[in-house]
Amino acid sequence: MANSWNSTNKYFDIDTSTNVAGLAALKGSAPASTDSAYVFNGATLTFEQNCSLLTTYRGDNYAGNAATKTGHIVVSAGATLTLYTTVSNAGLDGEGSTSSLTLAGESGNPAVITDNANAMKSSNANCLACPVYSSHGRFQGIRGLFFNGASAKFDIQNTTFDTCSYGLSFAAALDVSNCVFKNNAIVDCVNSILESNTTSVNVEALFADGSSYIQHGTGRSAFTMYLSTKRYFSYRESAVPLSSAPEWDDTTGIQSLTAAGDRKLTASWNGAADPFGEQVAYRIYLRAGAAPDGFGKGGDYYLCETTGAGFDIACTPDGDALTAGTEYHAIVRAVSSAGYEDTNTVSLSATASDENADRLRKIDGVVQTILALSLS
């Protein structure tokens, strides 16, 4: 069997690892919010770019007769998977303890799974035993993550649960020694932690190292948490909104932009501080002829991201060499470890020069002067 697209029932059957570009090639157009993807036979479907689907399924094909009931879904750094499921507790469907869901983000560039218009329907409720791995991820506006049984496991670090129905929900007793939960934020969720009436999970152990916190604010009437034993646990609460961007220390944005010869520009700026004490990154936006007016990774003017206080610019956002004699405008924005960038529009401009051409013009000028003198 090979990867296929069924236009009648609008689903992809994926038994060989592929990505969003591969789905588009199968269908002949971009995946849509009415399409579903089924991943099986040990294949991995990687969302390396933004994508909308109705649902995803890991561990079997559409017909339910896959030879190997194992499938993997990975969302890459900077990509957002938006699910349009119309059924509560669906969207991130699947089966089997050998299937998996992974958010592979980076500091300042999270991998995101979100529900259309915060419908709060998408969850992994139908694949309770499938492991979830997340590094620098964000679950936004979904119903939440379910875990069932003592053998279920997850490794969730540097991840945000943002405006979800709940952050974590436990449908049965869970051995948390199989799990990792570090440096996470549960923000403005209706329920931060949810247990069933018969479940008792050592939630305290998940928050024991103090690295994760719960935050509730204007988005919710109150912080709510239902634990079956009516107990409460010690957790760290943050008063700083997670969506806070870094604040510039003394000066805002780019401070200098100069021609560096050989069709290069040098940009520099001062520092900014992350609201949670994490390392700040700086995103450089570049445009020819006018100041950039679009932002975010993947935008037309996004050049690169760096943690330094300066950068030598040698190419355009498209990867082309700078053009001598062209005026370029640059904006530098600070971005937090959670991926929120400040909104400054401070812009400086400089004209790229061609050092070799300038040198040749100078030499030619000297030669012409010598010739003129010799003929006079």
Please explain how this structure is put together.
- The chain has two domains: 234 residues; 110 residues, Immunoglobulin-like, CATH 2.60.40.
- The strands form seven sheets. It has an eight-stranded parallel sheet with strand order 6-9-12-15-18-21-23-24, with no helix packed on it.
- Helices cover 9% and strands 36% of the residues.
- With 376 residues, it is mainly β.
- The termini are far apart.
- The protein contains three helices and 33 strands.
- A hairpin with a 4-residue loop joins strand 1 and strand 2.
Quaternary form:
single chain
β-strand percent reads: 35-45%
Instruction: Give average pLDDT, whole number.
Output: 87
Task: Please bin the fraction of helical residues.
Answer: under 10%
Overall 3D form: globular
Through-space gap between termini: 86 Å
Lateral arrangement of strands in the main beta sheet: 6-9-12-15-18-21-23-24
Write the SSE topology.
Layout: E1 4-6, E2 11-14, E3 18-19, H1 20-27, E4 36-39, E5 43-47, E6 51-53, E7 55-58, E8 71-76, E9 80-83, E10 90-94, E11 100-104, E12 111-115, E13 122-123, E14 132-135, E15 137-140, E16 145-147, E17 154-157, E18 160-162, E19 166-170, E20 180-182, E21 185-187, E22 191-195, H2 203-206, E23 213-215, E24 236-237, E25 247-248, E26 254-259, E27 265-269, E28 272-273, E29 281-288, E30 302-306, E31 310-313, E32 327-335, E33 348-351, H3 355-375
Parallel strand pairs: 2-4, 3-5, 4-7, 5-8, 6-9, 7-10, 8-11, 9-12, 10-13, 11-14, 12-15, 14-17, 15-18, 16-19, 17-20, 18-21, 19-22, 21-23, 23-24
Antiparallel strand pairs: 1-2, 25-28, 26-27, 27-31, 29-30, 29-32, 32-33
